[in-house]
Amino acid sequence: MGRVVFKTVESDIDAGTHDERLYDKALHPWRSKLRRWLTPLVRAETPYIAKLQSTIRTPVLDYYFLWTANLGTHTFFMIFLPILIWFENQHSKGIVCMAAFGVFTSGFVKDFMCLPRPLSPPVHRLSMSSSTSLEYGFPSTHSTNSISAALFMISVACESYSPDSPLRVVCIIGAFFYAVSIVFGRIYCGMHSVTDVVGGAILAYILYWVQWNFRYEFNDIFLNDSIVPIIFIVLGCLGLISIHPDPIERCPCFEDSVCFMAVLIGVFPGSWLCQHSDYCQLGQQTLALTQSTLPVAAFIVISKLILGVAVLFLWRIVVKKICYFILPPIYRAFNLPHRKFEIGARTYKSLNRESIHPIPSVLDLRHLAGTVAGAEHVGIQSDIDLHEKAAFDKHQKQQEFKHRGSQKETTVETPNVYDPTTLLVAEDAPLRYDVDIVTKLIVYAGIGFLAVCPVIMLFQFCGLSS
């Protein structure tokens, strides 16, 4: 159920309730101290990012960086990863795992640190996504995903091709260009500071290093005759979800983390089962594709995509409807707790009339129809921005007071005048119910399981594999 709420915030209430004391009271002391240490770094970069935008922005670059940003989003990886699995890439499951932990760890740190994005104004934000502005800034998930994927691609190219191979050079240059376009684009678009992308780069390298150096041990998990390691991995993923920190403001990072961890919860047992099924192994073969003429190969590729995506979307629609019917009474009967910013089951009667959109919210495909002009935002877009605006204004007042004190001048204090348009907070996001998180967990775990086992068996049954 979508909503767009515009609320005017009075300056006196804003300054009295939304400053650094809010975070000091809500966060653990050492967590608050760490945030106070990093926040000045982000704020100090804001005028420089605004200056950079005013100097180098052009319509061509706006268009380029807006569209390349989509290659580092959850949307891209949610669409790309099943395709990678279906067309038998030996590194596909490793890339899925690396991407999932990239989204989870970056979202974990975001909600843990509660660091703002560069303030707008003076920065102009360019984004096609309506939910990005609701997230904290540090570290950059785009940077984490793109850099880890680029490093992995470079390593695969160096391992697969000889040093003098043109394909090796092309892969390395392509991976480098991909990562640089997305990382610099986040700064150019005013969505992240240098501190954010550096944090994302460090996180990306850690994830890449672990996944690449332990890739053989990772693959051995699925070859093991015992399913016990898979069970422990699934329990570990559930444990990670349970310790995800609560943000101060409303932030969708937790939902994204649940979706990607749920995918792993389905991928691991599904991959193990497929590895121990002869029929599924036949479905992973690509003989029908490699030994066919170009028209036949194109038909096989398109048929696999249509069939695979149809199964996943049908699963999502049916299972979400079932969860909306079964889970609310269970939540009410056992009085189960829910997270902040969620509607408790005791406050609504039924979700049977709730519409189920065929496109998952995590994919956010609607923004692709937007224009460059519609993607530019100046002003407060979320509670996170609102709190940062209050803190920024308080800091400015303190600096002015110090300046007046040093000059020994007496001036009449004038109230802070706000531009009313900057005090409109748009909450363009669907309402979340307490059962939504468990529903997402079930739905996306099923998607992960279906993608790596039953769908591949279906390909074999339809004669699209061998």
Q: What kind of assembly state do the chains in view correspond to? A: single chain
**Low-pLDDT segments, ≥5 res:** 1-18, 408-430
What would you call the shape? globular
Report helical residue fraction. 55-70%
Question: How much strand content do the residues show?
Answer: under 5%
Return Rg in Å.
24 Å
**What composes the largest sheet?**
2 strands, antiparallel
Class per helix and strand makeup: mainly alpha
Average pLDDT level: 80
Structure description:
With about 475 residues, the chain is mainly alpha-helical. It has a domain at about 275-360 and about 430-465. It contains 18 helices and four strands. Helix 5 runs antiparallel to helix 6. The longest helix is centred in the last third of the chain and has 41 residues, at about 295-335. It is globular, with a radius of gyration of 24 Å. The two termini are about 45 Å apart. Mean pLDDT is about 80; it is low at about 1-20 and about 410-430.
Summarize the structure.
With 466 residues, the protein is mainly α.
Name the descriptors.
2% strand, mainly alpha, globular, disordered N terminus, 4 strands
Topology at a glance:
Layout: E1 6-8, H1 11-17, H2 20-26, H3 29-56, H4 59-68, H5 74-86, H6 92-113, E2 125-126, H7 141-160, H8 166-188, H9 194-213, H10 215-223, H11 228-242, H12 253-275, H13 278-283, H14 287-290, H15 294-334, E3 376-377, H16 383-406, E4 424-426, H17 436-452, H18 454-461
Antiparallel strand pairs: 1-4, 2-3
Domain Phosphatidic acid phosphatase type 2/haloperoxidase: 93-212
Family: Belongs to the type 2 lipid phosphate phosphatase family.
InterPro entries: PAP2/HPO, PAP2/HPO_sf
